Amino acid sequence: MILETHRLLMRDFIEADWQAVFAYQSDPLYLRQQGYKALIDALGVAGTLRFLQQLEECYGDYTKEHHQWLDQLTINDFRNYIK
User: Fold this and answer.
1) 49-68, pLDDT tens digit by residue?
2) Spatial separation of the C-alpha atoms in residues 59 and 56, rounded to whole Å
3) Which of 15, 17, 35, 48 is the most exposed place for a label (fewest CB within 10 A)?
4) For a pLDDT cut of 90, what percent of the chain falls above it?
5) How far is CA 30 from CA 14, 63, 66, in A?
6) What's the chain's Rg over C-alpha atoms?
7) Of the candidates 2, 5, 23, 4, which has an alpha carbon nearest to the alpha carbon of residue 13?
8) Helix (H) and strand (E) counts in the chain
9) Are 30 and 24 in contact (CB under 8 A)?
10) For the stretch 38-58, what's the b/e string if a residue is b when 16 or more beta carbons lie within 10 angstroms of its beta carbon?
């Protein structure tokens, strides 16, 4: 579908749009807004606020430490978890 005015052109995405889509979807503000939207959709406003109040500042280096618990998991553990 195409909708065009003298100031606007709206059309379906095409393959050549991927760089522009990637750019705006990588923006930290966009990511934060999408995260809030997902939380609100799943938990409601009050539940989201309660969840966010529980967050604490974290310490450590996840990229160095995650192997301590991930290395113990098997593919079968993961399959069972997602069932």
Assistant:
1) 999 888 877 777 877 787 88
2) 9
3) 15
4) 47
5) 21, 24, 27
6) 20
7) 2
8) 5, 2
9) yes
10) ebeeeeeeeebeeeeeeeeee
